[in-house]
Amino acid sequence: MPTALRPDLAPSPRANAASVDDCRLIELPRITDPRGNLTFIEGGAHLPFSIERVYYLYDVPGGAERGGHAHRALQQLLVAVAGSFEVLLDDGRRRRRVRLDRPYRGLLIGPMIWRELDEFSSGSVCLVLASQCYDEADYYRDHAAFVAEVL
Ligand code: T46
Q1: Distance (Å, rounded) from C-alpha 134 to C-alpha 76?
Q2: In what order do the strands lie in the sheet with 105-109?
Q3: Which pTM was predicted?
Q4: What is the DSSP letter of 120?
Q5: Which residue of 32, 46, 79, 98 has the lowest C-beta tally within 10 Å?
Q6: Ligand 1, residues 23, 55, 118: which to mutate, most atoms within 8 A of Cβ?
Q7: Is the pLDDT of residue 6 over 80?
Q8: For the segment 29-65, what is each residue's pLDDT rounded down to a tens digit?
Q9: What is the CA(44)–ligand 1 centre distance, in A?
Q10: pLDDT computed for residue 27 by the predictor
Q11: Closest Cα to atom 13, ligand 1: which residue?
């Protein structure tokens, strides 16, 4: 029997699991101007989702960490609209760190990716555009429970 047809080698149910490699940086439009620069984000044009919620993290004290959870369905775009911070991405198998430090660059994070935010610079602001309104039931706040779900 050809290998491709052997049922014991069929793709596992987790074959389409979310990967940290699916989290991508998006370059946003930049209108440069001597009066100051402008960047805009349109749901249909720049994001694979329509924007249902906007929130932002600010006045983050030095050494603080945010996040520490994954979402079942939520998609988000994170932008360092001021200053910089780092995002640790974790799909349960691999981890990757991304630094955000430009107001015209966003990080897209899909469902089932654990994220932790740290290394906030003084005065930094993390803008988040989200595909759904806040719903605590969408969160995995326990890392072991998240890993058990994705592996
Ligand atoms: C994420 C990172 C980047 C609300 O009531 N509405 C909201 O829209 C949000 C985001 C939070 N909250 C409440 C829930 C908690 O009582 O605000 C409190 C702090 O939320 P949390 O501890 O989840 O905040 P972060 O900064 O750790 O995480 C947030 C988002 O929850 C999360 O989706 O990816 O920012």
Answers
A1: 12
A2: 24-27, 105-109, 76-82, 125-130, 53-57
A3: 0.92
A4: P
A5: 32
A6: 55
A7: no
A8: 999 999 999 999 998 888 999 999 999 999 999 999 9
A9: 24
A10: 97
A11: 134
